[in-house]
């Protein structure tokens, strides 16, 4: 469930982490999440997918997920078991794709700035509170508009649609 | 309430009188597009919804172009999945190789785009169709799946930016340079979540093909859409592709913009975007000596006949540098045919270029010209991210067609003036 609090360690990345870095095109001959997860973030850090542990977080700078519309990017990250991405800002299509597949993202310039690599953090996705257990600081992410919260709560756009339009089934 | 053309299209498709920035709306779509990378996950999601039919058999466009003709077994499976899906639901617009093209070049050329339309595509460069006064934007596979089932999509109404171009274009400056220059000025997130409207006397004189090149790269500034007003040039183009009935839409004179950018194009020379961001632009004259291994002319940005003519002008009677591989990719079958009719094919082959069937191919490091470690390419494509054209340690420099062609001859990044 997305609404649970989650805790894990932080991997930091810079500005403009594009979708080719998140999942290079050479791996797009499949859309299998487990396959994609193996190569997540490969061109930014070739060992990342092996080093990271499920539950961890990515904290990045501006414009995370810029570039192509490939939903494979949030799918790959979600399938690694990553808890969420916290960034100063997100590129538009990545933002909507993450919401549509029910993968948590949080926008917080302060958290993106101050949280350090390796810090242990805890995130409450319902309230958008980010607690840095290493530094003891707390941050508040931008809340999502109600409509998007509903999609996230439903577990993604498809599940939301099935709830909204029973006639579609 | 004064509105921009973007706001008017969004409002109309949401059944509203106006659309204010920030407003969340649900819109009817006129066209839903997917390619061989993004359609397979969309098809899987579509099947999960459990509907028995698509919202409209004629309004869904499936174009296998990225790894087509299938480059390996996995790609063949992805394209097969699209083909079978199209058959199962009676989707008319599935494009097999032999009658296809790169999606964003193919759709306008076949008359699938009308001014005032609202188009979504599971491909970020879907913003290309703004050149014809349509609202079009890239979405993900789940959005594509939902729209195929419901014919609807949710949007946050974007804020509006206006870009005004005045002055006299320098020699060899193309639409590509205007958009590269603009991205260089505002950055890769300078228009994030926003609408980019392109206007001014310079734009009025641009051909529709050139406008397609500019709208194509709106996403490279983070834009939600790029759009142009409808004028005599638009009408002429539409007549040629047999589009006859469409609304005439304009931005109101007193429409509100978050920001207006004014550029004097006389100051703009051909641009080269260095690795690894499209915003990392430099005037070609200040490029220094950068040796290249490959030059790629094509893609949804610059693979139309107008582009091929520029390339031919430069390559006629010349030879590609022995250390360079020049790959030319016409964006559609029609472009290829026209190249043959006009004798461009012969010019290219005699110059020592490799000319391919329409495909995205090397643009995304897929096939037909992938870079090895340490190699450098100049390309008329739209992205130069790390590893975009192959090995993570290869480099891509973006330019217009004339510069890419001249560089192929010179063996280094060069202006046509240097030849
Ligand atoms: S040519 Fe390049 S940018 Fe255009 S659709 Fe194909 S891969 Fe994408």
From TrEMBL, chain A:
Enzyme Commission code(s) on record: 4.2.1.33
GO molecular function annotation: 3-isopropylmalate dehydratase activity
Pathway connected to this protein: Amino-acid biosynthesis; L-leucine biosynthesis; L-leucine from 3-methyl-2-oxobutanoate: step 2/4
GO BP term, example: L-leucine biosynthetic process
Start and end residues of each Aconitase A/isopropylmalate dehydratase small subunit swivel domain: 21-103
InterPro entries noted in UniProt: Aconitase/3IPM_dehydase_swvl (IPR015928), AconitaseA/IPMdHydase_ssu_swvl (IPR000573), IPMI_Swivel (IPR033940), LeuD (IPR050075), LeuD/DmdB_bac (IPR011824), LeuD_type2/HacB/DmdB (IPR011827)
Keywords for this protein: Amino-acid biosynthesis, Branched-chain amino acid biosynthesis, Leucine biosynthesis, Lyase
Listed Pfam families: Aconitase_C (PF00694)
Keyword DNA repair: no
Keyword Glycoprotein listed: no
Catalytic activity: (2R,3S)-3-isopropylmalate = (2S)-2-isopropylmalate
Source organism, top-level taxon: Bacteria
Matching HAMAP family: LeuD_type2 (MF_01032)
Subunit details: Heterodimer of LeuC and LeuD.
Family according to the record: Belongs to the LeuD family. LeuD type 2 subfamily.
Role played: Catalyzes the isomerization between 2-isopropylmalate and 3-isopropylmalate, via the formation of 2-isopropylmaleate.
Protein name: 3-isopropylmalate dehydratase small subunit
Organism: candidate division WOR-1 bacterium RIFCSPHIGHO2_01_FULL_53_15
Automatic annotation (TrEMBL), chain B:
Annotated Pfam families: Aconitase (PF00330)
Domain Aconitase/3-isopropylmalate dehydratase large subunit alpha/beta/alpha: 7-411
Name recorded for this polypeptide: 3-isopropylmalate dehydratase large subunit
Protein family: Belongs to the aconitase/IPM isomerase family. LeuC type 2 subfamily.
Functional summary from the UniProt entry: Catalyzes the isomerization between 2-isopropylmalate and 3-isopropylmalate, via the formation of 2-isopropylmaleate.
Swiss-Prot/TrEMBL catalytic activity: (2R,3S)-3-isopropylmalate = (2S)-2-isopropylmalate
Pathway note: Amino-acid biosynthesis; L-leucine biosynthesis; L-leucine from 3-methyl-2-oxobutanoate: step 2/4
Keyword vocabulary terms for this entry: 4Fe-4S, Amino-acid biosynthesis, Branched-chain amino acid biosynthesis, Iron, Iron-sulfur, Leucine biosynthesis, Lyase, Metal-binding
Protein species of origin: candidate division WOR-1 bacterium RIFCSPHIGHO2_01_FULL_53_15
Subunit structure and binding partners: Heterodimer of LeuC and LeuD.
Cofactor binding mode and count: Binds 1 [4Fe-4S] cluster per subunit.
EC number: 4.2.1.33
A GO term for molecular function: metal ion binding
Keyword Amino-acid biosynthesis: yes
Origin superkingdom: Bacteria
Keyword presence, Iron: yes
Gene Ontology terms: biological process: L-leucine biosynthetic process
Encoding gene, per UniProt annotation: leuC
Cofactor(s) needed: [4Fe-4S] cluster
InterPro entries: Acnase/IPM_dHydase_lsu_aba_1/3 (IPR015931), Acoase/IPM_deHydtase_lsu_aba (IPR001030), Aconitase_4Fe-4S_BS (IPR018136), Aconitase_4Fe-4S_dom (IPR036008), HAcnase/IPMdehydase_lsu_prok (IPR011826), Homoacnase/IPMdehydase_lsu (IPR006251), IPM_dehydratase_rel_enz (IPR050067), IPMI_cat (IPR033941)
Binding sites annotated in the UniProt record for [4Fe-4S] cluster: 300, 360, 363
